[in-house]
From TrEMBL:
Species in which this protein is naturally found: Corchorus capsularis (Jute)
BP GO annotations: defense response to bacterium; defense response to fungus
Protein name stated in the entry: CHORD domain-containing protein
Matching Pfam families: CHORD
One Gene Ontology term, aspect cellular component: cytoplasm
Amino acid sequence: MAEQPAKLRCQRIGCNATFTDDDNPEGSCTYHDSPIFHDGMKEWSCCKKRSHDFSLFLEIPGCKTGKHTTEKPVLAKPAAARRNPTPIPTSTIATSKTDKESCPRCRQGFFCSDHGSQPKELNSKAAPAESSADIQAPAPPKKKIDINEPQTCKNKGCGKVFKEKDNHETACIYHPGPAIFHDRMRGWKCCDIHVKEFDEFMTIPPCAKGWHNADPVS
């Protein structure tokens, strides 16, 4: 019996499909070029489609087609890099309330190292802090579905195809979030890991377990 060719994982952004060298026709891969992050906005450089929400940003369909590849894409570097930045005097670190209110990142609820603000989270004072490993995704709302119907999990960092009959409280490994983007750093607040490159950010291992969820509330 002939040995089945090994399946490879496509490394193009927005694809993530598996393929073999013998079954990789032109046009089988749909993908994006490099992403751009600025003041809380996420944008694909190729099609200029954008979103404030990271989950919705990743769901924007790829705009380019080609062959699958195992080579990681070379991401475009920001063109406008500031030269010879002027050091900020220590005395100006303690900014006034007016400065914080005028900061676009603080007003949108994103992490801001300049003013020490944290992302806005609901019920942040309602319960003692838990480690991300102890956080579990709630069971998805009950609705009439075929327990044998394949569904795609929408929890951040998962994206696996599952059947409801196999779903349980530790079936999904995911990031509770939120994702944090500041200057050139990307990371997850839940596991406190931050990296500079987008492809490194996409490979940060999920840190919590819970139910698969094909239709998350948020």
